Amino acid sequence: MTLSHDVLIVGGGGAGLRAAIAVAEDDPRLTVAIVSKVYPMRSHTVSAEGGAAAVIRPDDSLDEHAYDTISGGDWLCAQDAVEVFVKEAPEELLRLEHWGCPWSREPDGRVAVRPFGGMKRMRTWFAADKTGFHLLHTLFQTSLRYERIARYDEWYVTRLLVDDGRVAGVVAVELMSGRIEAITAKAVILCTGGCGQIYPFTTNAAIKTGDGMGLAYRAGAPLKDMEFVQYHPTGLPFTGILITEAARAEGGWLINKDGYRYLQDYDLGTPSPTPVLRSMELGPRDRLSQAFVQEVEKGRTVDTPYGPIVHLDLRHLGETVIDARLPFVRELCRSYENIDPVRELIPVRPVVHYMMGGVHTDIYGSTPLEGLFAAGEVACVSINGANRLGSNSLPELLVFGARAGRAAASFASGVQGAGTSVRPAVRAQVEDERRRLERDLLQRDGGKEPISAIREEMRATMEEGAGIYRSGSSLAKAADRLSVLQERFRSVRLEDRSRTFNTELLAALELSFMLDVAESIVHCALRREESRGAHQRVDFPARDDHRFLANSLVYRDADGSRRVEYPPVTITRWPPGERVYGR
Ligand SMILES: Cc1cc2nc3c(=O)[nH]c(=O)nc-3n(C[C@H](O)[C@H](O)[C@H](O)COP(=O)(O)OP(=O)(O)OC[C@H]3O[C@@H](n4cnc5c(N)ncnc54)[C@H](O)[C@@H]3O)c2cc1C
User: The pTM is what?
Assistant: First the structure.
């Protein structure tokens, strides 16, 4: 039996569910399925805390949201994509309300909004500090209304099938049984999320291993702007658990070991000429993370067993505000640090949070590989440029999840013939993949490299070589170390040969994707000889619009070699200028 659907979505997080609903609504004749390595409600979207940005107040405008996004992204954003994004974001958030999302309210009944880093106006909608949970729950329940949305929960996609230059489906492992199956489709939408697990300290769940980026890259689709990796300035030091930016939006301070609000000593971009909101703690994330490194260098941070830290001080907000607006922050601090932020300081450090880069798409979610679409954090439509503003990612996955769903539906309707007939070229790929998984990984004797050793070294390599600050020599060294790790991965050792929930096999497959994605980050970072947004080169400290007002597109060619191209950034109405942030 061949498993087959018109549109197949890889990923059951916010982007995947939104895309599935869009397909189901668009054309009732189409069959659609979601494959997800975890049960959809366990996707990382569930952990988003702070909120979702969209213009709603009369004193705000779409142009201002667009400008904040573009300037926050250090002029690397595709401006046509940003214009679509800011226009459709309010529509999507309202639609979510109609589907049941309990947005927090003002006493007069209006949707409540809070300030957020880099946004000059208050436009971040929230559901207390559990926005992602409510958003994902709303989408999941809405998806259940459509019987036509089939689900493969706890199936792991290992490869994209490509037939004559067009995507034909995927190969996936059912984790419970270990069976390896082809699932064919006329269109595939990747919604697999980000890849924070490539780094040692991250807010990202253990499942965020860049699988979708690896899948697309191996199939010949280019990855865009991979050198831009966002650090969030306030993670808990050991676990990397996020203390949401909402804590600073509500008035929290960052202080160094002398109790001093050190951000006043740093250039965080030009403060907004219209002093609408907020303090220096709401400067852009990249600048705040860079200021932390400089505090370390000045010896003004606190040493701990998990490296240097600074403190986030919420004490002056008082228990009532903390309990009403930041209950989850209090819960996390109590559970993971055994401290109460009402009375004590929270230890924090920058941790990897988000990938600006990803699979290259246009504003319809299409990639250059025919029939392949992408949306959400795995994709790079390019609304985030060189630095994403907090609370833009949830509306992004709604806007572009829906767009990719509609575009994939229309593509699939135009494809002739049943997707069930598997052509010989595709069958050969399926057999090839079965061999790789069964023989090369599961049944091979003599492997000597433990997965965890390679993984730890990869993470250390990325933090040292491609962290908050990079240089030509740190990146070149990282590139060399990664190619050695790739070589070592060839003799990786698997001890578990069972079929049922073989998590060791899963860890090996995830590591292999992470190594490919890590290499793409390092190579793009090495070639970009300038500093822009989250990409700070100590050897090229200035932004260089002359050479690099361009997105990077990295391809892996059939012979395994890498190629990077630099198409110019799409500029519509906002010529490059200085970065400005709300104050
Ligand atoms: C702690 C935290 C807090 C955040 N807070 C905010 C916030 O307040 N506001 C905001 O705008 N953004 C926030 N973000 C960012 C935002 O939440 C994410 O970028 C977004 O939720 C990603 O959604 P997604 O649908 O693209 O991917 P995810 O929700 O990560 O879902 C990925 C899906 O892909 C599936 N998958 C992956 N690989 C495979 C494979 N090989 N085979 C099968 N399935 C696969 C997974 O099972 C999962 O279902 C936060 C992020 C984190 C980590």
Answer: 0.95
The pocket around ligand 1, CB under 6 angstroms, is made up of 10-16, 35-38, 40, 43-45, 47-52, 131-132, 156-157, 191-194, 203-204, 207-208, 211-212, 242, 354, 376-378, 391-394, 397
Q: Where are the domains of the chain?
A: 3-52+84-230+353-380+389-414, 235-350, 424-548
The 10s digit of each residue's pLDDT in 108-153 is 999 999 888 888 899 999 998 789 999 999 999 999 999 999 999 9
Query: What's the CATH number for 235-350?
Result: 3.90.700.10
Residue nearest to atom 24 of ligand 1 (CA): 193
| Tokens 């949970």, located at residue | 133
Residue having the nearest C-alpha atom to atom 33 of ligand 1: 11
Q: How confident is the model at residue 582 (pLDDT cuts 50, 70, 90)?
A: very low
**Same fold: 3-52+84-230+353-380+389-414 with 424-548:** no
- Can you name the CATH fold of 3-52+84-230+353-380+389-414? FAD/NAD(P)-binding domain (3.50.50)
State the pLDDT at residue 377: 98
By annotation, the residues acting in catalysis are 285
d(CA 377, CA 387): 13
Architecture of the 424-548 domain: Up-down Bundle (1.20)
Split at pLDDT 50, 70, 90, the class of 420 is low
Tell me the CA–centroid distance for residue 491 and ligand 1, in Å.
Answer: 31
Q: What torsion, rounded to 10 degrees, do the Cα atoms 37, 41, 43, 44 define?
A: -170
User: Once rounded to an integer, what is the mean pLDDT over residues 340-362?
Assistant: 97
Pocket test for ligand 1, best of 34, 41, 45 (most atoms within 8 A of CB): 45
Task: State the binding site for substrate.
Answer: 232, 244, 353
The arithmetic mean of pLDDT across residues 189-217, rounded, is 97
Pairing of strands 155-163, 166-174: antiparallel
DSSP of 139-202: HHHHHHT-TTEEEEETEEEEEEEEETTEEEEEEEEETTT--EEEEEEEEEEE-----GGGSSSB
Residues tagged in the binding site annotation: 11-16, 36-51, 211, 232, 244, 353, 377, 388, 393-394
